[in-house]
Amino acid sequence: MDIKVRNKVAELQRALEQDEQHTSLSDPVAKMMLVAMAHQSCEIERKMDQTVARLSEQFCDQVLQRSNLQAQPAVSVVNIGNGREYTPYYIDENDTFTYKSAKCNFRPIFRSRIVPGRIVACFMNNMLLQPNSTPLQATWPDNKHKDEIWLAFDAAGEVNTLEDAIIAFSHPLPSDMLMAEVGDVQIPMSLVMEDTPRTLNSNFMLMEFWKKSLVYYGLWLYRFGKCSNKRTLHRGEIPAWIMDSYAQEIIEPLVGNRYLWIRIKASRGISLPLNTAILLNSIPVVNYDIQDVKLSYSEPIQRLENDKTSTFFLDVVQNQEQAQEFFIRDFDVCQYDNERIREDITNLYHHYVNDYFAFVDSNSLHDGATLRSLRQSMMMVYDSLDEYRSGNTRPYGGAYAIRNPRNNQQPMVLTYFTTNGERGNMLRRGGRLTSTNVAVGDVEALIDATGGRNKIRDIKTRKELAKHIVNSNDRLFTKIDLLQYCRMEFMRAFGEEAMGYCNISLSESNIPVDGHIEKCINLHFNIQSEVLKEEVNNSDFFNYLKINIELRKSFSYKLTIS
Q1: Which of 52, 242, 304, 484 is the most exposed place for a label (fewest CB within 10 A)?
Q2: Comparing 135-139, 165-169, 396-400, 547-551, which segment has the lowest mean pLDDT?
Q3: Helices (H), 111-206
Q4: How are beta strands 516-527 and 502-513 bridged, if at all?
Q5: How confident is the model at residue 175 (pLDDT cuts 50, 70, 90)?
Q6: Which of 324, 321, 278, 334 is nearest to 129 (CA)?
Q7: Neighbouring residues of 27: CB distance < 8 A, sequence distance ≥ 6
Q8: Class of domain 459-561
Q9: What are residue 230's phi and psi, to 5 degrees?
């Protein structure tokens, strides 16, 4: 007899013994009816609990999109140094940059041209800026060119065009029309954030987050556009106006060298702070890999994720010819896991065993032996669930590629994207990456990698996320919305149990901004566990949280997180 049924029988016995009518339980029929009633009562309670749980899961499935639950890759910007190649070359998603400390690979978001060389000097605001040197004021200021930027670029080889090359600024250029000139060749410039990635789409990566993260870290990327003139760009001596603006001893190191002089101008002029950093060959990268899997008649199902390496499935490389030959099933998203399997087996077992004697000897079946054998098999399956109850089993989940059963053609090769999720955030500013491309030199991260997150698997975090989506439509209007969103993201990053050691609160204050007072909202994370506090501080959680809040908030107040 099940332990729950026994407890229910004991409870009913005590209730009957206390009854004024003193119902006698010496009658075996009465005891049998009592046990049957207790059993049915337990069955009703169990089914009610299952119904509530499954309704909750179904509600989450209806509210949440796959993009809300899937892993997200980390993004960063790297600078490509000079390698063994002297002429310009292209890099694209087929080039891999490896961060060995985290065992993560990053790939370029855009196809970009790399122009080997280095910027040796920059002239703007009547100041001479050189790497690792103090800015020098013009001896005789020139007002004609003071609202322009002149770059002296020491190219490693001949340069036919700057098209598709990317240059990074630590401060934004004017939003009006930008134009670069090299001699008499004019080249338009545009923000890279306005471009559409070749391989990534909105379901694969949150482009708005990427754009916001660049602004958060103070980095603006500009791409050189197409120009009609394809001849070799002219190298020249130092422009005459620079010679006339500076004393001989200041510009002496630049005299006699033939540089590629890049003139950048805007219709309203350009004025940047003196601490502006400018780097050519700076490209955005994202943490993802391209993998293949073979689906055949004998092996029609293949797992697309690896728990040992924390590799999460992102998307399938689009191929119209293969669209009908396979489908993807993510068991983490649909929540058909060990718990659901256990419930289904339990329901089937109880339904069959409870009704077994109703039809085992029925003349219409004439198969009592088979039913008895089936009953024994089901009891063995049910008893095997003790392994699950003891916690010795690993939950089954992940994304799977399944070959269409109606596909009787030859084996197919499926190409898909994967990411390392939160592990990609381990790349920090100044981190070095390696490349198998011999043309590529040193690769250095210009900003911290951010935005990487793991897949949401536990149902409680899903419920918090669904509550946030329903209450605010993924927007932040009130203080309650803000606190709920912070709670959900904390659970997403560190797990449900970590929430028991963290108290999230907010306060308001007034801070001076540009000569006036502005309202500020302060978020406080009071973490009681020292181990958890260290884990949070060593992660990119607060930067990730602040960028996402900035994307979703409907208020203009300043925000601080501590």
Answers
A1: 52
A2: 396-400
A3: none
A4: antiparallel
A5: confident
A6: 278
A7: none
A8: alpha beta
A9: -105, 5
pLDDT above 80 (res 160): yes
What pLDDT, on the 0 to 100 scale, is given for residue 203?
46
Paired tokens of 19: 């009854």
* Strand extents, DSSP E, 251-297: 260-266, 278-280, 282-286, 289-295
pLDDT, residue 56, reads: 63
- 256: its two tokens: 């006699």
Express each pLDDT in 68-118 by its tens digit: 778 888 999 999 998 888 889 999 988 999 999 999 999 998 899 999 999
Phi-psi region of 366 (alpha: psi -120 to 50; beta: other; left: phi over 0): left
pLDDT at 17 over 70: no
Alpha-carbon dihedral 65, 547, 435, 535, rounded to 10 degrees:
-90
Q: How far is CA 547 from CA 213, 220, 541, in A?
A: 6, 16, 10
CA 490 to chain centre: 15
Q: Is 425 exposed, middle or buried (0-12, 13-18, 19+ CB in 10 A)?
A: buried
Question: Would residue 474 be called left, alpha or beta, if left means φ above 0 and alpha means ψ between -120 and 50 degrees?
Answer: left
Give the model's pLDDT for residue 235: 87
- Read off the tokens for 361: 């000897």
Could you give the 3-state DSSP secondary structure of residue 412? Answer: strand
In whole angstroms, give the CA distance from residue 411 to residue 401.
Answer: 13
- The answer to whether 126 touches 242, Cβ cutoff 8 Å, is no
For the chain, domain boundaries: 1-63, 75-285, 288-335+395-419, 338-389, 459-561
User: Do the beta carbons of residue 398 and residue 331 sit within 8 Å?
Assistant: yes
* 495 φ/ψ sector (left φ>0, alpha ψ -120 to 50, else beta): left
Contact 295, 418 (CB under 8 A): no
pLDDT digits (tens, 9 = 90+) for 208-252: 778 888 888 889 999 999 887 767 888 888 888 888 888 888 888
Query: What value, to the nearest 5°, has the Cα angle with vertex 557 and ends 554 and 561?
Result: 100
The set of residues, in sequence order, having a beta carbon less than 8 Å from that of 37 and lying 6+ positions away, is 12
pLDDT digits (tens, 9 = 90+) for 282-307: 999 999 999 999 988 888 888 898 87
As a dihedral over the C-alpha atoms of residue 538, residue 542, residue 548, residue 553, rounded to 10 degrees, the angle is: 170
Chain centroid to Cα 282, Å, comes to 22
Alpha-carbon span 239 to 457, nearest angstrom: 62
